[in-house]
């Protein structure tokens, strides 16, 4: 079993490509079902946000897995492999582990250290839990990544400054209009990002806020908090002209605000300028809107420069956070490797018990037939030794032949203690302490 992560994000692809490989919340369950039907895939988690689409998988082997997964991704999204292959990144084993920990901690985000990504990772994990799409290794990895993210937040200053896509959108509005106090704002959507935007705008005391959403219920909760008006998406057309600033972030697969709608709004406003900030992927606002006079359209990618200017104080904290991630990923891989030995140890112990029972039965039968007890014990010890050391001897020879000094040292370390452990297995002593006493004294009696 191998852990694998593949994805596409804001570093490797523009929004025009990212929006074509997103998974809507409604499609995640079906996507996971399809993904787990692929040969070699044992478990999976799909993480899809405005800045990244990633698959975290446990697979049986790595051979041909890249081609298989690219084929699945392209078939699912109706893409050609050449359209997406160069923008994909791949992480295996320890790299996959550390990548997820970095993502959950906000170290790989467009906004360094932003906290929203942890909630998005948890949501992706919960979706896989509901669909029973998790392998044991993936479940342990995600749970560990959540604790690492919490540790990064607690032990570093990575989240000390208010930097996020939502904050950057508000910063852009303040840079263009200087004061927001006399402006009307239309927010499209009612998700996490819009919630943050609304709270930032309330702090800057905008004149009036309108929240447009598919359902009134969710929007009303936010509106009650920030003192906003609620409308539905079909009402945007008639209310757009009232807005000086439009900030949109929904999960709609198609644009909500088109060029014609904005043209009508500008005409009604007598060409007073409008700022439109589209932070959705796929985009909520048709790109052609940006060609209209007095319509200033910015996408999530345009916010990058603003975000970069707010990162200086987080960079020092990021160094400390990276150190935490590195150590925790090493610890996780050590645990993962130990799990690979569990079945081997269980099989070896079972085999040892069978040998003990077989040899014990023969010895007891010999004693019952009048054989000399001391001679029976000597023969038992000799035969047990030969049967016991056969597999370890082969391992020693293999380790020596491979030049694996560390493994050779581990196998040969503490021979008396090792003999005691095995002797306790094969002779039925209740504890290794009793068997160790026997090995030290040469007496087949229990320790005092």
From TrEMBL:
<feature type="binding site">
    <location>
        <position position="109"/>
    </location>
    <ligand>
        <name>substrate</name>
    </ligand>
</feature>
<dbReference type="InterPro" id="IPR036343">
    <property type="entry name" value="GluRdtase_N_sf"/>
</dbReference>
<protein>
    <recommendedName>
        <fullName>Glutamyl-tRNA reductase</fullName>
        <ecNumber>1.2.1.70</ecNumber>
    </recommendedName>
</protein>
<feature type="binding site">
    <location>
        <begin position="114"/>
        <end position="116"/>
    </location>
    <ligand>
        <name>substrate</name>
    </ligand>
</feature>
<feature type="binding site">
    <location>
        <begin position="189"/>
        <end position="194"/>
    </location>
    <ligand>
        <name>NADP(+)</name>
    </ligand>
</feature>
<comment type="pathway">
    <text>Porphyrin-containing compound metabolism; protoporphyrin-IX biosynthesis; 5-aminolevulinate from L-glutamyl-tRNA(Glu): step 1/2.</text>
</comment>
<dbReference type="InterPro" id="IPR000343">
    <property type="entry name" value="4pyrrol_synth_GluRdtase"/>
</dbReference>
<dbReference type="InterPro" id="IPR006151">
    <property type="entry name" value="Shikm_DH/Glu-tRNA_Rdtase"/>
</dbReference>
<dbReference type="InterPro" id="IPR036291">
    <property type="entry name" value="NAD(P)-bd_dom_sf"/>
</dbReference>
<feature type="active site" description="Nucleophile">
    <location>
        <position position="50"/>
    </location>
</feature>
<dbReference type="Pfam" id="PF01488">
    <property type="entry name" value="Shikimate_DH"/>
</dbReference>
<dbReference type="Pfam" id="PF05201">
    <property type="entry name" value="GlutR_N"/>
</dbReference>
<comment type="subunit">
    <text>Homodimer.</text>
</comment>
<dbReference type="InterPro" id="IPR036453">
    <property type="entry name" value="GluRdtase_dimer_dom_sf"/>
</dbReference>
<feature type="binding site">
    <location>
        <begin position="49"/>
        <end position="52"/>
    </location>
    <ligand>
        <name>substrate</name>
    </ligand>
</feature>
<keyword id="KW-0560">Oxidoreductase</keyword>
<dbReference type="InterPro" id="IPR015895">
    <property type="entry name" value="4pyrrol_synth_GluRdtase_N"/>
</dbReference>
<dbReference type="InterPro" id="IPR018214">
    <property type="entry name" value="GluRdtase_CS"/>
</dbReference>
<dbReference type="GO" id="GO:0019353">
    <property type="term" value="P:protoporphyrinogen IX biosynthetic process from glutamate"/>
</dbReference>
<feature type="domain" description="Tetrapyrrole biosynthesis glutamyl-tRNA reductase dimerisation">
    <location>
        <begin position="320"/>
        <end position="407"/>
    </location>
</feature>
<comment type="similarity">
    <text>Belongs to the glutamyl-tRNA reductase family.</text>
</comment>
<feature type="binding site">
    <location>
        <position position="120"/>
    </location>
    <ligand>
        <name>substrate</name>
    </ligand>
</feature>
<dbReference type="Pfam" id="PF00745">
    <property type="entry name" value="GlutR_dimer"/>
</dbReference>
<comment type="function">
    <text>Catalyzes the NADPH-dependent reduction of glutamyl-tRNA(Glu) to glutamate 1-semialdehyde (GSA).</text>
</comment>
<dbReference type="GO" id="GO:0008883">
    <property type="term" value="F:glutamyl-tRNA reductase activity"/>
</dbReference>
<keyword id="KW-0627">Porphyrin biosynthesis</keyword>
<dbReference type="InterPro" id="IPR015896">
    <property type="entry name" value="4pyrrol_synth_GluRdtase_dimer"/>
</dbReference>
<feature type="domain" description="Glutamyl-tRNA reductase N-terminal">
    <location>
        <begin position="6"/>
        <end position="156"/>
    </location>
</feature>
<keyword id="KW-0521">NADP</keyword>
<dbReference type="GO" id="GO:0050661">
    <property type="term" value="F:NADP binding"/>
</dbReference>
<feature type="domain" description="Quinate/shikimate 5-dehydrogenase/glutamyl-tRNA reductase">
    <location>
        <begin position="172"/>
        <end position="306"/>
    </location>
</feature>
<feature type="site" description="Important for activity">
    <location>
        <position position="99"/>
    </location>
</feature>
């Amino acid at each position: 079993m191998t852990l694998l992560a593949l994805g596409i994000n804001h570093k490797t692809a523009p929004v025009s490509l990212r929006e074509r490989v997103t998974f809507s919340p409604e499609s995640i369950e079906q996507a996971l079902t399809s993904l787990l039907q692929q040969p070699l895939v044992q478990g999976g988690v799909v993480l899809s946000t405005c800045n990244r689409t990633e698959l975290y998988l446990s697979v049986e082997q790595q051979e041909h897995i890249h081609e298989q997964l690219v084929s699945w991704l392209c078939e699912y999204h109706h893409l050609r492999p050449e359209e997406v292959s160069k923008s994909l990144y791949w992480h295996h084993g320890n790299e996959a582990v550390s990548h997820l920990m970095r993502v959950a901690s906000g170290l790989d985000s467009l906004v360094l250290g932003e906290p929203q990504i942890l909630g998005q990772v948890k949501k992706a994990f919960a979706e896989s839990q509901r669909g029973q799409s998790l392998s044991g290794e993936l479940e342990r990895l995600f749970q560990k990544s959540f604790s690492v993210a919490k540790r990064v937040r607690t032990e570093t200053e990575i989240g000390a400054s208010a930097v996020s896509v939502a904050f950057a959108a508000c910063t852009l509005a303040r840079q263009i209009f200087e004061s927001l106090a006399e402006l009307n704002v239309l927010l499209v959507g009612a998700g996490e990002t819009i919630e943050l935007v609304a709270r930032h705008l309330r702090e800057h005391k905008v004149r009036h806020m309108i929240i447009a959403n598919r359902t009134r219920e969710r929007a009303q909760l936010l509106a009650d908090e920030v003192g906003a008006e609620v409308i539905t998406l079909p009402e945007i057309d008639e209310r757009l002209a009232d807005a000086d600033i439009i900030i949109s972030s929904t999960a709609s697969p198609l644009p909500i605000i088109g060029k014609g709608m904005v043209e009508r709004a500008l005409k009604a406003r007598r060409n007073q300028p409008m700022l439109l900030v589209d932070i959705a992927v796929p985009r909520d606002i048709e790109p052609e809107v940006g060609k209209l006079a007095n319509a200033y359209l910015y996408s999530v990618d345009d916010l990058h420069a603003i975000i970069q200017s707010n990162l200086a104080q987080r960079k020092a904290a990021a160094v400390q956070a990276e150190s935490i991630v590195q150590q925790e990923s090493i610890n996780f891989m050590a645990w993962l490797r130990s799990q690979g030995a569990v079945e081997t140890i269980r099989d070896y112990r079972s085999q040892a018990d069978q040998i003990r029972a077989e040899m014990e039965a023969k010895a007891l039968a010999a004693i019952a037939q009048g054989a000399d007890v001391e001679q029976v014990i000597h023969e038992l010890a000799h035969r047990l030794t030969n049967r016991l050391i056969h597999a370890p001897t082969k391992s020693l020879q293999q380790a020596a032949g491979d030049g694996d000094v560390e493994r050779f040292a581990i196998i040969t370390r503490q021979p008396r203690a090792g003999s005691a452990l095995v002797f306790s297995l094969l002779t039925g002593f209740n504890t290794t302490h009793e068997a160790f006493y026997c090995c030290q004294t040469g007496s087949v009696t229990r320790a005092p």
